[in-house]
């Protein structure tokens, strides 16, 4: 079986699919990743064959320009996610579908030459379902967070011009859906359940990470996108709280400019790239932006979470974490030392984290889903 794995240009979209791609390869199937921007290099680093479906595409410039052309900019969209989530989801679908359309022609050309039997696409990718429809092969949706449902294919196809350019009928649903959200997260199971296996790329671990420590350690991260769009100002209150606490804070910000945070206290350590799953294995709590990768990686490690959502599915993830009792959702301007102390010491939160971690570990592995994909293709 030959499987085309397609992803929007975002590591939070691509990384959750890599364990399934590995499982496909280990089972003897052929895999080709189609994406662009950072996803090309990261796919290659993961040992996967990859094609750049939109060489030279500047994703951040694309979003900046699309925001100018819209009546709602990214700042307003952030507010809209809290006041009118349905309208916000529609706007996000429109923008991501337009982004995916930038990949559609390059992805189609590669697919016509490679001849896949199946497309596996992440839930916000519009190019993969188009390619599958054009080639007449099944398309399977791979969910990656709390914000997911059964209408994404139709919603994104509505805003994808490639169907009209090629005279292809827009699909209304995928052939199947792979879902990684456990039931105790307060979500309804959609499609095939699969264990979330954290993939955060590789990297050399610093000596201090594995050394014996005498006080709690808190990981602080804003993922790979927020710092580029909004800077690190959301962490101002975290820095102030750190000054009051006998705990170590690891700011894993990927080399971002932190000058706006002022002078950092001695118990705050700046870190370059460290695979998040390895970092969280050696932390007692995590503060993050609510990205699906950060949320679910923390979930697999049983680590209490404090979320500072900025936009898109981050609000869904924050609501899910709060509802499941595995952490807190606090406005960034309101965070103080008491919130972080509770995150480290609350026994009910930690018990809930351990329960959800164990439930995720009991779900079918990616290799089990490979069998289902094989049966689907026939």
Quick summary:
The protein has 378 residues and is of the alpha/beta class. 45% of the residues lie in helices and 14% in strands.
Going by CATH, the homologous superfamily of the largest domain would be Glycogen Phosphorylase B
CATH architecture of the largest domain: 3-Layer(aba) Sandwich
Hey, roughly how much beta strand do the residues contain?
A: 5-15%
Q: What does the largest sheet look like?
A: 7 strands, parallel
What is the highest CATH level, the class of the largest domain? Alpha Beta
Mean pLDDT: 90
Give the total of beta strands. 13
Give the fraction of residues assigned to helices: 40-55%
Unreliable spans: none
CATH topology of the largest domain: Rossmann fold
General shape: globular
- Count of runs of 4 or more consecutive helical residues: 18
Number of domains: 2
Which sequence of strands runs across the widest sheet?
A: 3-2-1-4-5-6-7
The N- and C-terminal alpha carbons lie at a distance of 9 Å
What Rg is obtained from the alpha carbons, in whole angstroms? Answer: 20 Å
Summing up helix and strand content along with how strands pair, one would put the structural category as: alpha/beta
Describe this structure in words.
The chain is of the alpha/beta class and 378 residues long. The chain folds into 2 domains: 2-195 and 363-377, Glycogen Phosphorylase B (Rossmann fold, 3-Layer(aba) Sandwich); 207-361, Rossmann fold, CATH 3.40.50. 45% of the residues lie in helices and 14% in strands. The chain is built from 18 helices and 13 strands. The strands form 2 sheets. Strands 3-2-1-4-5-6-7 form a 7-stranded parallel beta sheet, with helices on both faces. Strands 10-9-8-11-12-13 form a 6-stranded parallel beta sheet, sandwiched between helices. Helix 3 (38-45) links the parallel strand 2 (30-35) and strand 3 (50-52). Helix 6 (85-114) crosses helix 7 (127-135). The radius of gyration is 20 Å and the shape is globular. This is Salmochelin biosynthesis C-glycosyltransferase IroB. Residues 22-223 form the Erythromycin biosynthesis protein CIII-like N-terminal domain. Belongs to the glycosyltransferase 28 family. Keywords: Glycosyltransferase, Transferase.
